[in-house]
Amino acid sequence: MDLEVYQRKQKRRNTAIIIAFFMMLLLSVLISMRSGYSSLSVTDILRVILGGGSENEELVLFSFRLPRIVLSIMVGMGLATAGCLLQAVTGNALADTGILGINAGAGLMVVLYVIAFGTQSASAIFTLPFAALLGASGAFLLIYLLIKKRDLGISPFSMVMTGIAVQAGLSALTTLMVIKLDDTQYAFVSSWQSGSIWGANWTFVLAVLPWLCILLIAAMCKARVLDILGLREETAAGLGLRIKKEQQGILLIAVGLAGACVSVSGSISFVGLMAPHIARRLVGPRHNTLMPVCALVGSVLVSVADTIARVIIQPSSLPT
């Protein structure tokens, strides 16, 4: 009976936390819509949404601010969920797509792609996530091959240390390319390396949205598997879990999320490291609750950070 009471209390507490973070996200969206070089009041926003705004107000809200807000929320959810998956699979609290070099691999390929093809055409924009995914997968494959030992699976310590080394190498390659860029390309690469929501239009939103929807749903479906992976390896195997196959599948989901996010946001670090720890302290280790809260925490972090970066030194902006 006491266990049932505790579970009901825990469920109510977790529900309250989810609602609180959802409200925080809505508040950050409202503040972000209001803030900027052309300030809009809440009344103005409602009037524009209902179709009564001026041409300038519609341009500011629908063409400039809303795409960037939506992208920041998507990027926060994707990076936070990817970090949660990596920490669960590796058993390492420091695991993160930025630290492990996955972001650097995706970024290197994005920079190569933009230099070669640009981002002006619709076809280039929609194929950009493929390029980022290819780069992220290549970086992860390199790390995996370097740390893999026959029949011993993945060593969390080796993965982090090797990932740091790979990240440094890929960043060095990116820096080497920067030397040969013209002024326009250099400005883009510098902005990307600093971490900015640079693909701030609806075309980029449409290009990345299908990737994130599919991969986030796939991640949520792995909640029970992630809980089992947190047990001892002998226990997980005794429950019939194919450990190596599940690890590989979950890692691929994390790589895909990182690649999609990096293609529109550049190298935004530490979201995947911090958000899972914040969520875990609030709702515990059960992944069916942990991952939704983690995604909300990540979206709030990136949304708030991007709003502050956009308005703190108007009319210029800082990296997210």
Quick structural summary:
The protein is 77% helix and 0% strand. The protein is mainly alpha-helical and 320 residues long. It has a single domain (2-311), classed as Orthogonal Bundle (ABC transporter involved in vitamin B12 uptake, BtuC), CATH 1.10.3470.10.
State the main characteristics.
single chain, 320 residues, ABC transporter involved in vitamin B12 uptake, BtuC, globular
What can you see in these coordinates?
There is one protein chain. With 320 residues, this protein is an all-alpha fold. The chain has one domain (2-311): ABC transporter involved in vitamin B12 uptake, BtuC. It is 77% helix and 0% strand. The protein contains 13 helices and no strands. It has helices spanning 2-34, 42-49, 55-90, 102-117, 122-147, 156-178, 183-194, 202-220, 223-229, 233-238, 243-265, 271-283, 287-311. Helix 12 crosses helix 13. It is globular and about 65 Å long. It starts with a helix and ends in a 9-residue tail after the last helix.
